[in-house]
Design a protein that fits this description.
Layout: E1 3-6, E2 9-12, H1 19-25, E3 43-46, H2 61-65, E4 68-70, E5 80-84, E6 92-103, E7 106-112, E8 122-127, E9 130-135, E10 146-151, H3 159-164, E11 171-178, E12 192-197, H4 201-213, E13 220-226, H5 234-243, E14 247-253, H6 257-264, E15 272-278, H7 279-291, E16 299-304
Parallel strand pairs: 1-5, 12-13, 12-15, 13-14, 15-16
Antiparallel strand pairs: 1-2, 3-4, 3-5, 6-7, 6-11, 7-10, 8-9, 8-11
The chain binds FE2/S2 (inorganic) cluster.
FE2/S2 (inorganic) cluster (FES) binds next to loops.
Length: 311
């Protein structure tokens, strides 16, 4: 198995083990978050010739030039000499401007910071050495603050702190924005269907408002799933529906969304679909949309990462 050389020590990797897992197994404390290639919390540096291709996906041109790679995605193919990266330089401060509980399990957090973003992208939010990704629900041209909808887990490494101990006025560190789950301007006359589960509706709300802001002319419909038939964001949907006849929505439990989709639409040919939620939800709904005639290039998805017990 390849060896990992890191800070004057050498660590043996196990079969199919990522660089991140090798270091953690040897009790080396390096930052990480999603373990899925999304948050970029686990960035390390190595000689380019030693970096497998697939573990630099999503990195900026500047990071590629510096031979950065994602440790959680890197299964070494040869011995690697790796160096830590000062992730501090990639973070900026964001002040907590507002906290609001939609209900006992969903928090709205509004942050003030100097950042350019597109609604639907996500940021990585840090507390100490732990990082989590959250999608952005607000539209930069319309809203002064970054808005995140956060599902609160009692033992969540980040969400429990955001709900219980972080106060308005506190400063947090964020990184990003990342991702391309955003409104696409190429066809204002194409009907939009957006389908979300849980806080997966947060980026969808941003994308809808961004589309309206960019004079999207076709109808826009939202299917929103939650743990109960009424979504935590019902009020926001109603306000949007009252503001324009172009937008409509239906909400139901997550389990019923697929049935609702098939009952509502006999065909999705020609429509653009945005889907956001947990992995199994997104995969199931994507398949249904495809079976209803949507073109694969018109199905745009964002999967939330399952942090299980830890968030
Ligand atoms: S932990 Fe590697 S990208 Fe998130």
């Amino acid at each position: 198995m390849p060896d990992i050389y890191f800070k004057d020590s050498v660590y043996s990797s196990a079969a199919d083990e990522s660089v991140l897992d090798t270091l953690l197994r040897h009790n080396i404390a390096i930052p990480y978050g999603c373990r899925a290639g999304a948050c970029q919390a686990c960035i390390l540096q190595a000689d380019q010739s030693q970096i497998p291709e697939h573990c630099q996906q999503g990195l900026s041109a500047q990071y590629l030039k510096q031979d950065y790679f994602l440790a959680c995605q890197c299964i070494p193919e040869q011995d690697m000499q790796i160096k830590p990266v000062d992730t501090q330089t990639q973070k900026i401060n964001a002040n907590v401007s507002e906290k609001f509980l939609f209900n006992e399990r969903t928090l709205r957090l509004r942050l003030s910071c100097r950042l350019r973003w597109r609604a639907g992208q996500y940021i990585t939010l840090w507390i100490d050495k732990t990082a989590r990704c959250y999608s952005i629900a607000s539209v930069a041209q319309l809203d002064p603050l970054i808005e995140l909808h956060i599902r609160a887990y009692p033992t969540g490494a980040i969400s429990s702190q955001l709900v219980n101990s972080i106060k308005v006025g506190d400063s947090l560190q964020i990184q990003g924005p990342l991702g391309s789950f955003v409104y696409r301007h190429d066809n204002a006359e194409q009907k939009l269907l957006l389908i979300g589960a849980g806080t997966g509706v947060a980026p969808l709300l941003g994308i809808i408002r961004d589309a309206l802001h960019h004079q999207h002319t076709a109808d826009i419909h939202l299917l929103a799933g939650d743990q109960t038939p009424i979504s935590y964001a019902e009020k926001a949907f109603q306000e949007l529906q009252n503001s324009t006849a172009q937008f409509s929505y239906q909400s139901d439990t997550v389990e019923n969304i697929d049935t609702l989709l098939k009952a509502q639409f006999s065909t999705l040919r020609g429509q653009r679909i945005y889907i956001c939620g947990g992995e199994s939800f997104v995969q199931k709904i994507r398949k249904s949309c495809f079976m209803l005639g949507a073109s694969p290039r018109d199905i745009i998805t964002e999967e939330f990462i399952n942090f299980s017990k830890n968030d």
